[in-house]
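Example with several molecule types.
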Amino acid sequence: MKIADLEVSRRNGVIIARVVGEVDMSNADDLRAALAAAIPNDAVAMVLDLTGVEYLDSAGIRMMYQLTEDVQARRQRLQAVIPSESMVTDVLRLAGVTEYIGAVETVDEALALLEVR
Amino acid sequence: MPMDEESREARGPRLGVGQTVLAPGEPILAPSEQLGMLYQLSDPALSELGLEELLDELLDRVRDALDVDTVAILLLDRDTDELVARAARGIEEEVEQGVRIPIGQGFAGRIAAERVAIYIRDVDHADIMNPILREKGICSLLGVPLIVEGSLIGVLHVGSLVPRTFDQRDLGVLELAAARAAPGIERARLHSELQRQREVAVALQRSLLPGALPQVVGVETAARYLPARAGVGGDWYDVIALPRGLVGVAIGDVVGHGLPAAALMGRLRTALHSYALEGIGPGRTLELVHRFVQSIGGDAMATAAYGVFDPVTGKLRLSTAGHLPPVLISGGRATVIETTPAAPLGAFPYTSYAEQELALSGGEVLMLYTDGLVERRGEPLADGLGELIRVVRDARSAEDACARAMEHLASPEGLDDDVAVVAVQNTVLTGELRLELPADPAVLSGLRHMLRRWLREKGADELTISEVTLAVNEACANAIGHAYPPGPARFELTASESAGELTISVRDRGSWRESREPDGGRGVRIIERAMSGVEVSRVHEGTEVLMRRKLGPR
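Resulting structure tokens for the full complex:
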């Protein structure tokens, strides 16, 4: 059974990947593979929009780290979007990785940070 | 080798050396003991035999009656117009090698084509199609057609290893045997054909029904299917694990019987299953399946019921399409749930299916079933329903309910109609939460939904719910990730609350090793920060993670 959906769109050179649902050890690896495959070579960055994520655990955090490595190895950038009232904020805080993830509140903020609009 | 057309024409009634077409029907005088045996060929005991047994019995009696070395029966395969050796004495190789003889060719082929008896005193081996007859060194052959109601069904022939004159009396005996046995053979053949079709249909039906039911946290499900005595029908059931910890429960009954009904059942089950996976509600799902049935055309029609159960709220949304009402089992009582009347799937062009909401408290079981369980010929439906209610009211689980229904209502002599039953139970959730689950990452989502519900019932605030759920999820993920391969494994989660203090335990049968965590202990850090106390201890054959925290903020 699928517990998360992935919607991918593109704005100029940026891929906007929106994850909706739950991310845990049952789907983190598959999601990472799908996200990595969603970034074409000519894209400069990916915005990983977790606004629609209802649950994310340590497997999801690991997935974000690995995806960052995947993207950086291709000289591309990754910017996470996590609203402060999101459940994801709780897990980042408990895992002590909030600063490392460096998420912003909205997709527009992410695009501004990546200097594309 | 085919017979030479020209020489056959030239010889007229004489067919090769010593080959004679015999005219049946002449008065015969047969020894009484021969006839006595052959009369038994039509005895009632034989008609009860299966085809193989009947043929074996016939061969033995013919061999004894005529004192011959070989007897063989070849039956017509209508698909290929060939005679197929089905049973033999003295020339068993015919059957073992599956000898097939085209109609019109050779000894047996000509008997079949011309529907006459043929006698060959000195077998000219050039005229024999079947090499086995040659190899056996058969000298004389006598064969007759097997005819039922004007249709040829096969050939019966006898042979002698020494030259023998088969006279009119022998022919009479063989013809009598053929006449007596042919209807029985045809009956048995039709019966075994039906039997085979039934087996195919049952196998098909079983392959179209779900295998192991999905595990959904907080829900116990069980199901049964039993084919009818006379053949399969189009009954089906389904249990579908849906997003967000919901579970779909479906039952249906395609109008009609046999293979076509079973095949249509497979299509409808697949259609309903696919729509259900999309998270579409029960009413809309039935509407879409209805549309699918209509697209099939013909007189395709089915009754069905589909419910979506949410173990977190205990609510079950149900829609029915001309299907019998479900039964709710609760605390030693069983009641038939009143449903909104609606037409069967495929019955009328414009049909919509209303949804109704049922509440399933902890321990309660909802049971869906097909008419074969409660309908008895010549008895009012209410009697069947009343009996169902009586036998399932004390059921303690979904499994128990299915077992009781089948034990008491599915007659051991077989059913007139096939039967499907599926039951769903809300797992008891009073006080302590106790879940025993397979070590499969797929259970985590449902487990979290269940835990949140339990915490909410205990009065926990949203932050506590979020943090405790994270901690328990990590502990369970650890148990799953470290589970004891190979083979299926399980782990156990228990949660209790006393005076505002939560105690949650996750036990598995593996060993807890932080180094096995590929993320450098992030999961452990989450548990330690979310809970106020964590103890990891070796217990009998495994590991227990014991977590404590106040119900409110830490």
